[in-house]
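FAQ

Q: What does a record look like?
A: Structure on top, sequence underneath. For example:
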């Protein structure tokens, strides 16, 4: 039986040098710096005017006082996402177990969904409409 020997890694040949991970990292950083410097040299120089620095939306001035974020709606959707994301992971990893854990996780999903849905229904009844969008 013939034994396999690993090549000596102390002597890198010219062809193997290109596959060195630290060398590739250093070369990519160096290329990025060179491109950044070259871009700043050839870029047109413009004067910073207040019109250029002002925020705008779709080519029109952005009135900051009209921008309002409904944090309550965001947190309701974030809670839905958290519930379904975490529970999907738990369900995917629990199907190898006996039937108790998947059923428990499905029960947690249903209880959380019912609670969040009841909060949504109460808000609709209180406000008279759903404030989505």
């Amino acid at each position: 039986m013939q034994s396999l020997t690993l090549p000596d890694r102390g002597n890198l040949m010219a062809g193997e040098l290109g596959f060195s991970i630290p060398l590739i990292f250093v070369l990519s950083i160096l290329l990025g710096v060179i491109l950044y410097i070259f871009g700043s040299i050839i870029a047109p120089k413009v004067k910073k005017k207040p019109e250029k620095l002002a925020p705008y939306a779709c080519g029109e001035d952005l009135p900051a006082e009209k921008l309002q974020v409904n944090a309550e709606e965001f947190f309701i959707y974030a809670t839905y996402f958290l519930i379904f994301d975490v529970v999907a992971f738990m369900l995917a990893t629990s199907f190898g177990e006996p039937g108790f854990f998947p059923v428990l996780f499905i029960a947690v999903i249903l209880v959380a969904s019912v609670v969040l849905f009841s909060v949504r229904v109460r808000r609709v009844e209180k406000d008279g409409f759903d404030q989505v969008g």
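Q: Is there anything notable about this one?
A: The longest helix spans residues 100-127.
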